[in-house]
Design brief:
Order of helices and strands: HEEHHEEHEHHHHEEEEEEEEEEEEEEE
Oligomer: single chain
Strand order of the largest sheet: 7-8-19-10-15-16-17
Number of strands: 20
Helix content: 40-55%
Largest sheet: 7 strands, antiparallel
Strand content: 15-25%
Distance between the termini: 86 Å
Protein name: Nuclear factor 7, brain-like
Structural class: alpha+beta
GO molecular function: zinc ion binding
InterPro entries: B30.2/SPRY, B30.2/SPRY_sf, Butyrophylin_SPRY, ConA-like_dom_sf, PRY, SPRY_dom, TRIM/RBCC, Znf_B-box
Keywords: Coiled coil, Metal-binding, Zinc, Zinc-finger
Length: 473
Amino acid sequence: MSEKDIFLESYLSCHVCSETLKDPVTLICKHSFCLNCLQQFWEQAKNTNCPICKRKSSKGDPRVNFALKELADSFEVRRKSGLSETEKREKKLTVVCRKHEEEPKLFCVDEQRAVCSVCDFPHQQSHKVVPVEEAVSVLKKHLKSDFKSLQDKRNKYKQVVKTYNEVIQHSKKQLLSTERQIRAEFNKLHQFLKEEEESRLAALREEEEQKGRTISREMKMIKEQISSLSDSISAVEEELQKHSVPFLRSYKDTQSRARAQSSVSDPQLVSGALIDVAKHLGNLSFRVWEKMKEKVHFSPVILDPNTANCCLYLSHDLTSVRHGDTWQQLPDNPERNTKYANILGSEGFRSGKHSWDVEVGDHPTWNVGLSKESVDKKGELFVSPKYGTWCLLHKNGKYIDGVGQTVTVKKSLQRIRVQLDYDRGEVSFYDPEDMTHIYTYRDTFTEKLFPHFSIGNAGNAKTSDIKICQTEI
């Protein structure tokens, strides 16, 4: 583009849309704009100022500058025509030899370009040259392969987007379900505390009523004694008013009565008449908490639902699991076991000693133990330390260790105790009923280990869930 064309393009461009002016209007400040662009700008700005210099325009309905419009339309037609000729010329140069005006029939593999059979003859001696048709066939094959790779890559991205959408929807369900269960648990605690509060308030009122009755009984007796004393006092006063002979005849009876009542012991306040506040308030929170412990259980291991295979169903408290007959619609998040019916504990261990009991009941197929954090959750996985699992397997009525050897037991196991000594590199299994040793792995652990559970489909057999045994706090 010549300098003249560059100048014209700058002069004939709208300062709002940066395109060649359409139906141009010129404001009193000499700045020009497309009519439609200016009107939209004024509507958004809610004023009639120039978009460039901000000078207010007195023209609420500006007129099209037809001279400028003709010049702009002419320039746009010429610009498009010139661009079209350039594109044609460039296209021609790419497919036609500059000198011989013919399409090249050969392709230089070394330089990856089409060559003329006359001008580029030296290439036929020192470079690998093949017919264009052959080159096109090979290059299209390569491009198709790249095309397939791009499609595969795009499909993978689409699958990730799909999974994220599933994660979002599942997270919403998790939110509602978890919120509902949290409220239910706290409602139980609230109900317990409410009942405990009412019970203790009732005991307080009962004590107040009981002691009130005792005090009333004592006061009634005292009032009766006061009445009797008052009668005796009145009798003595009356006796003292008598003359000599009448007094002598009756004073002995009055004196005897008075002395008898005077010899009665003085009244005493009953001990414990006040409410035993210390009994009701002393260590109140602690005593309520101790009583609450009888209703609250603790599980040494909590199952992580985000790792559960789609066929596994968990209890609300996340301590037991069963194999369902139908698959759940769950997102394929990285933590989820997708190939096997496995689930992991929610917390892992990097040191120390840990143990928990698993009630396996009469399930025909299961394995329990530990697996490392990086265990493959999507592909092949075998019950073996080689694959990052240290488990005891039960299958076809046999108990099997991680190398496929049968483990001898005295009786069918209903419970399994798993013990981990991370620092010593030991995973042991016991019968918790009599602590009979079953099997021990000895290895070197280098990463976090998670409790591992797997349960097979029991078919039509009626079996209970596999669950972690809870204890009272």
